[in-house]
Amino acid sequence: MSASQHELLVERAESLDDMDLADLCEATDAAIIEGGGFGWVEPQGREALARHFRGVLLVPGCELFIARLDGVPVGSAQLIRPPRNNEAQAFGAQLTHAYIAPYARGHGLARLLVRRVEERAAALGHRVLNLDVRETQSTAIALFEALGYTRWGTHPAYARVRGRTVAGHYYHKLLEPPHGRPLDMRAGAPQN
């Protein structure tokens, strides 16, 4: 494999071995330090992040996706499904905590990560994927907009980062149902 060719893989995690967990924690802290892709603004260290990811794997309605570069975990994303008692919004899901470590960017993994989450959400019957992102994460914003996400709102006091209040943008994307059936989310449109 030449220096310009890398193996890209995104998979849904049901468990994490110690080596993968260590690599994922390192990638997460690197993304936090760089300022993108996670809700934390200060690095958390391996112990705290290991507890976090082990907890994510236990939460009903939450699926963890791991992005790998040459077999090594370098990023992740979470698909959050609405609770069973929220039938009115069961058609939608949330994409959250999506990031790729700074040292693994530029290979197309972020795009692949988002696509895999979209595919899984659609396969589970969700027809809308929602997400939100800090205004300071311009690379993530450009990616989501290039992938067809529609910005529907901005919260002017969305987060506090290093003593500064920053805005956040809210996005949604209509997902294509599996098997190419047409999707019509207009009020009163016939549903399949």
TrEMBL record:
Domain of life: Bacteria
Keywords from the named record: Acyltransferase, Transferase
MF-aspect GO terms: acyltransferase activity, transferring groups other than amino-acyl groups
Domain N-acetyltransferase positions: 11-177
Cytoplasm among keywords: no
Protein name: GNAT family N-acetyltransferase
